[in-house]
Structure formats: structure tokens, C-alpha cells
Amino acid sequence: MNLKRFFGALLTALGIGGLIYTAVVFSDTSGGTKDVKELIIYGILGIVFFVSGISLVRTTKDES
Predict the structure, then answer these.
(1) Residue 11: Cβ within 10 Å count
(2) Residues in the chain where the model's pLDDT stays below 70
(3) CA–CA distance from 25 to each of 16, 18, 60 (Å)?
(4) Which residues, at least 6 apart from 34, have a Cβ–Cβ distance to it below 8 Å?
(5) In this structure, are residues 8 and 57 in contact, taking their beta carbons and an 8 Å threshold?
(6) What was the pLDDT predicted at 17?
(7) Looking at the 3D structure of the chain, how many domains does it have?
(8) Among 10, 23, 24, 14, residue whose Cα is nearest residue 46
(9) What integer pLDDT is reported at residue 2 of this predicted model?
(10) How far apart are CA 9 and CA 27, in angstroms?
(11) Is 35 helix (H, G, I), strand (E, B) or coil?
(12) Which of 22, 48, 53, 64 could form a disulfide with 42, with the two C-beta atoms 3.0–4.6 Å apart?
């Protein structure tokens, strides 16, 4: 089992979860300043995890 690929898949899943959570918070927001800050933080973390996970999976070579 390739540990880098597993970690990349885990980061990708965390990123997708963060982006979905951001969408749920966005749909329930009432427009307060605290809600906007949470949206920005969770959205940026979700994007960073997602992109880093995808790039880690793509750059890892398959070894038999």
C-alpha cells in the first residue's frame, strides 16, 4: 500500500468535506460578519486540502 497515495486521498476527502460544510453554512447564513469570516476560513481550508490532496495523488508514481 502506498502511504503517499492514501494520505493524498485523505486530504482530498477532507477538502471535499470542508467545501461541502462551507456550502451548508453559506446556505444557512443570515449575513452576519462572523458567518462571513467562517465561510472564508472553511472555504480556504477546503480548497487548500483539496488541491494538495489531488496534486499529491497525481504526482505519486505507481510502484508494483
Answers:
(1) 20
(2) 1, 29-34, 64
(3) 14, 10, 34
(4) none
(5) yes
(6) 95
(7) 1
(8) 14
(9) 82
(10) 27
(11) helix
(12) 22
pTM for this model (two decimals): 0.82
Cell of 50: 483539496
The residue whose grid cell reads 465561510 is 39
SS3 30: coil
Q: Determine, yes or no, domain membership for 1.
A: no
Q: Is 63 helix (H, G, I), strand (E, B) or coil?
A: coil
Q: Report the C-alpha gap between 7 and 30 in whole angstroms.
A: 36
In percent, how much of the chain has pLDDT > 70? 88
Structural domain containing residue 20: 15-59
Asked if residue 51 belongs to a domain, the reply is yes
Q: Is 8 in a helix, a strand, or coil?
A: helix
- Does residue 49 contact residue 12 with C-beta atoms inside 8 Å? yes
User: For position 64, what pLDDT does the model report?
Assistant: 56
Where do the H-state alpha helices sit in the chain? 3-28, 33-59
